[in-house]
Amino acid sequence: MEDIKELYTESDIQTMRAAEKGRIPGKNRVEELISFAEKSGIKRIGIANCISLQREANDLKTRLEGKFEVYSVDCKFGKITGAELLQDETVKGLSCNPAGQAEFLAENNTELNVSFGLCVGHDIMFNMKSKAPTTTLVVKDREHKHNPYKEFTMDNL
Q1: Cβ-Cβ contacts under 8 Å for 91 (sequence gap 6 or more)
Q2: Strands of the 134-138 sheet, one edge to the other
Q3: Per-position DSSP letters for 83-151, written without gaps between them
Q4: 3-state DSSP call for residue 26?
Q5: What are the angstrom distances between the C-alpha of 100 and each of 16, 20, 81?
Q6: What is the tens place of the pLDDT at every residue in 26-46?
Q7: Per-residue pLDDT reduced to its tens digit, 20-30
Q8: Can you give the residue ranges of every domain in the chain?
Q9: 44-49 vs 112-116, strand pairing mode
Q10: Which CATH number does 42-146 carry?
């Protein structure tokens, strides 16, 4: 047990306590996110979203703005082409910019970031570059309309 306890700093324990206190049985993840942020004393929340989910990210921003300062940034932030960023002229169109999203939110001093529909790999990069703790609200899953568990049952898990 002592080895396990050594894995956690006092700040980690405070986050874990807020997570326990933020649980709301029967409520959705957005409501739990709000509860967690309130119980943690968070004032500034960042949203890093995929441009294809802009409407939904705007809805989340509107819902959070009554209680928090909210900063949102879409994946095409900076408008750099894929060919230029990846140094590969076969890549067409604007590149996603998860490191730029993380930097934008850091410049706005967010205390909690929300990953909202970023592609696999881009979400990893965003989480690695994010200065604030990050939670995932929506995952990118094109086949199942962003619900990766849609086809799962206990029989096929």
Answers
A1: 81, 82, 83
A2: 69-74, 44-49, 112-116, 134-138
A3: HHHHT-TT--SBPP-HHHHHHHHHHTT-SEEEEESPPTTHHHHHHHH-SS-EEEEE---TTTTT-TTTT
A4: coil
A5: 29, 32, 13
A6: 888 999 999 999 999 999 999
A7: 888 888 888 99
A8: 1-40, 42-146
A9: parallel
A10: 3.40.50
Please check whether residue 69 is in contact with residue 42, taking contact to mean a CB–CB distance below 8 angstroms: no
Distance (Å, whole) CA 41 – CA 64: 14
The C-alpha atoms of residue 27 and residue 61 are separated, in whole angstroms, by 19
8 A C-beta contact, residue 135 and residue 157? no
**Token pair for residue 152?**
């799962």
User: What is the C-alpha to C-alpha distance for residues 137 and 115, in angstroms, rounded to an integer?
Assistant: 6
User: Within 13 Å of residue 3, how many CA atoms lie on the same side as its CB?
Assistant: 0
Query: What distance in Å separates the CA atoms of residue 65 and residue 89, rounded to the nearest whole number?
Result: 41
The per-residue pLDDT for range 101-113, each reduced to its tens digit, is 999 999 999 999 9
Block residue for tokens 């649980």: 23
